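Notes from the 1:1 (GR / supervisor)

We went over the backlog. Supervisor wanted to see one worked example end to end before approving the batch request, so GR pasted a single chain during the call. The sequence is below; no edits were made to it. Supervisor asked that the structure be written out right there so they could see what the output format looks like.
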Amino acid sequence: MRKSDGWNLLSSFDKDGKFNAMAAIKQTGLTPMGAANLALQAGAAVVGMAYMNQVNKQLTVLQECVGEVLKEMAFERDAALKTALDDLRMLAERQHDFLTAPEKRALALQIADRTRHDANEAWNYQLSVIRDWGEKLAKDRRAADEGAIRRKIEELAPMEARAAYAYKLVAMAERISMGIESDYTTDRIEGARKLENRLEGEYEAAIGPIEIDLLDRISKIGGLPLLVADAEDDGYEPQNPVDGAVHEALRQANRLNPFRMAEAAEKDLSRRKTAVQGKLFLANEVARAEDACAGQLDDLDFAFNEADALLICDGQIRAISTREEDEDEKSEGPASDAGGSE
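Structure output shown during the call:
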């Protein structure tokens, strides 16, 4: 590279004049914001296509479970969601084709907008279903024992799974639009965050009262006042058979100690309540989808707007930051590795 270009190629060639297996390319003399353009200019195509491949894999996973999700919905809604999923997969697989001409790009964006609309419609429908179910639950005071509460959670789980499915489609339609437009700017990513924050707020408004209701019922689950306690393993080694028999008899009798029996009953009740709570939170697939999507946006934001260098290594391109932490960041936590953060 010419020196007048203002670029430095670091650790690029070995003694024999061959290109190194590992080389860092960094644009110098720019502000952090200006240097971030390196990732966008030099790696946008590669990183963008790699990201779209990941989106395509996620769509494939959704395709595998689409039957379970769609069979619970009306047939018309089934068809719309299935079409939305198919369109997103087609856009992800043929992204390169749609970038070859402006009219093809415009068509791809129209398809992405339509799938986003269909997925958003399904999302609102599922929220309505969950809210309606929650209103019925609030009026049903019979679901008070552990078994009834478990059954209610089992009823709620598929509704949450369908909501998570619609959420993922909305988020992926936005990601694919970003890829088609090759727009990973801070403003665009922030717009995607606002969209997902809106969905999260809507979901919390629908599921929050239901979770509070179910947690209150779980807290009131009752149990026996006394339970036979577990035998204590005190590591005693008998000297002879008679001594061993006497010790074992005393050890078993200690299981009927009233204090230990009360303690065993309390522990058993706590364990069962914790298990039911875990079942409730495990059903919340939307929360896991939200966390995954937020992490993806953070990765994209770093790669295109925060990284100041590209690392070429073993056929891979990694966006990295070589800037040192400022004093405020150092005071909040340990310093990053000398090689920078990915």
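Supervisor's comment: Confidence is low (pLDDT under 50) at residues 1-13, 21-36, 327-342.
Batch request approved.
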